[in-house]
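pasting tRNA and rRNA cytosine-C5-methylase for the record, 415 residues
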Amino acid sequence: MAPRPALISPARLAAFEVLRRVFEEEAYADRALRVAAERLDPRDAALARQLAYGAVQRARTLDHAIETLGRRPLRRLDAPVRAALRLGAYQLAFLDGVPRYAAVNESVELVRRAGLERAVAFTNAVLRRLAEGARELVEALPESTPAEAALRHSYPDWVAETWWRDLGADGARALMRAQNEPPETVVRLVRGTIDGTPDAGIPGAWHVDRVDGAALAEGRIWPQSRGSQLAGLAVGSRAGERVLDLCAAPGGKATMLAGEVVAVELNEARARELEDNARRLGARGVTVVCADGRALPPALDGFDRALVDAPCSGLGVLAARPDLRWRSQPLAELQLELLQAAAARVRHGGTVVYSVCTINADECEAVVDASGLAVDPTLGEEWPRFRHQARPDFLRTLPHVHGGAGFFVARLRVP
Ligand SMILES: C[S@@+](CC[C@H](N)C(=O)[O-])C[C@H]1O[C@@H](n2cnc3c(N)ncnc32)[C@H](O)[C@@H]1O
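structre below
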C-alpha cells in the first residue's frame, strides 16, 4: 500500500506561499502574507506570520546551514525546494516547541505537492541532516567581524559594515539581534479610549497587543511606531500656521500636525490613500497635492514649517518588514534634494524637520550637514531621552536601546 501523504498545516502552507512570492516574485512579505493568511483563523495566521517572517528574515543564515549540511549550492535547487528547505530549516534552527517530524515531513510534502517528486528524497535527506545539526551550526557561527556577524544574524554585508562604522561592534551586534525580534505593536490614539498601555515617553502613543480593526476602520487609532510619532511631534506646528509635508503618504505624520497642512505625495495611488486616511482620521486641515516635492507649483510657498519625512533605506524598521533588508538601499541624494526643496518653500525664520526611518549616518547626519542649514538645538532639549549621543541636537531612536523602530529626526532653521 502506498504511504499516506502527510498533512500540511494551514500555517505552513501559507508561510510557504509567502516565501515563494517574496523570493520568486519580489513581493512584499506583509502583502503576500495578507493574501496567503486571509482565510486562516487567528492562531494559524499568527503562526504563518512567525514562520514566514522568520524564514524571510533569516534567509542568509538558513541558506548557509542548508548549503553546509546539504552539500549542494542553493542556486542549483528548484525554487520550491529552496522555499521548503528554508521553511524547515528555520523551524529546526530557531524555533522551540515545533516537533521535528512536523518541520521535516511537512516541508517534504510541500515539495511533493509542488510536483517535484524527483526532489523529494533529496529534500528529506537534507532536512534530516538539518534536524540533527542546524541549531548547533548556527549557534557556533562567529560574530567578531562585520562579515561574520552579517552571516550569523542574516544581514547583507553592507548593512553590518555600516552599523559597525556608526555604532561600534557591540552596538552593531545588539542592533542586529534586536531587529530579528518581533517588533512592538504601537498605535497613536486619535480619539476616544483604547485597551492598552500609554507609552511613558511619547504622548499619544499606546502599546497594544494587536491593532483593533474596528478602531482602525473608524479612525480612532493609527498604527505608528514611537519613532515615527516622535518625528511628527518634533514639527511642533500650531493652529493658524501653514505647514508643508513634502513626503506625506500614507499620512501618519500629516494627520498629527496642527495648522493648515499641505500634504505632498508623488505616487498617485498613495496620494489617494492619504486622502482617505486624512478623512477617516478627521484631519480636516490636510489638503493633499499629488506632485514631486522637488518641483512644486510656485503658489506653494512661504510656509511657517515643513516636514521632510524622506524615502530611505528603512534600516530602522527591518524588524517590521522582514524582506526589506534584502532590497534596501541608501537614498542620500534624493533626501538632500527634498530637504533643499522644502527649505526653499519655508519663510525666513521658519523650521524644517528632516526625518528618516533609518539609522546610518549617510542618510541622517550627512544629509543634514550637506544641506548647510542651521540646526535648531532646542529639539534635543525638548526630548532628552532620545538625544543622539554624538550629536545631541539631533534625535535618534535605536531599536536595541529604546525598543521599537529606529528613527532619525533633526529640526533645521531657515535663515
Ligand atoms: C517615508 S514615506 C512617508 C511616510 C509619511 N510621512 C507618514 O508618516 O505616513 C515617504 C513617501 O515619500 C514619497 N515620495 C518619494 N519621492 C517623492 C518625491 N520626489 N516627492 C514627493 N513624495 C515622494 C513616497 O511615495 C512615500 O510615500
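The domain at 10-140 is CATH 1.10.940.10 (N-utilizing Substance Protein B Homolog; Chain A).
The chain has a mean pLDDT of 96.
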